[in-house]
Amino acid sequence: MARAYGANAQLLGKFETVYGTPPTGNYIKFPFVSCDLGSEQGLIASDLLGQGRDPSQPIRDVIRVEGNVVVPVDLRNFGHWLKALFGAPTTTGSGPYTHTFVSGASSLPSISLEVGMPEVPIFFMEAGIRANSAQLNFARSGAANATLNCIAQGEAKATTTGGGTPTVASLTRFDQFQGSIKKDGVQLGNVTGAQLTYSNNLERIETIRSDGKIDGADPTIAALTGNIEVRFADTTLIDAATDNTPLELAFAYTIDADKSLTFTAHEVYLPKPKLAISGPGGVQATFDWQAAKATSPARMLTVVLKNDVASYA
Fold first, then answer.
1. Does the model's pTM come out above 0.90?
2. What DSSP state is assigned to residue 149?
3. Is the peptide bond between 31 and the residue preceding it cis, with omega within 30 degrees of 0?
4. Consecutive 10-residue runs of the chain (313 residues): their mean pLDDT?
């Protein structure tokens, strides 16, 4: 009897023309670290009385199709995930290409993802997916990964793949060694770790329908938050927090001049943290920051991806 193994699992995806309708043709084969995206349907305990002490059968609750996909932050494939988060980029250049994604789009594209386990065989097509949020962590060492929270409209099960002959992009991963954090264009020193979370704060449109699906997942007020852990060596960030002075923070992975990924939060506000001394070692401070829409440019976040992909249209 065949058994499913993560080593052989595959994740295929393609952007939809019609929300909730899986497109035909050849999908993209995405590299991924883990995936718990799928449907679940809970049970509601019976509330009937007068039937004795043993309960009557439970009733089925609504179907929810959502979950997290952890993907590598890489040079080429990650552009598709950025498109799901922000919408299509503005692309310039003739090779290398510069793809600029911006926050604040009024509508977002939807994508179908197929989670396949060919040994069984079983293939789950998750349709009408919109990217709710993405979280990235910056550290001294290790691989650079992103955790994407997704909300889908529905799921279909099949014994054959619906992804055609998948296209595969050459994989070039960013790693934490290539990371940097700048404040107002200048390298920020004494940083031991950082975290960045962008959320579209999707609202599920939970209408009454016989198939149990939602009507959509619409973006509301976006949020950009995170934290920076620093060794306490100067009062630069403490002063900015005390004075409520906004900063520009840029989080980047850079391979070379033609291969990079940069998240620029244009107007960041820092809270004033406690400086706790818990032993003879170095004193650290954690700043849980929040970003807001800047005056110039008139947006909260800009993401620039430089690579050799001509288009993410």
1. yes
2. E
3. no
4. 81 96 96 94 92 91 92 97 97 95 95 94 96 96 95 94 95 94 89 94 90 89 94 76 89 96 96 73 81 95 97 91
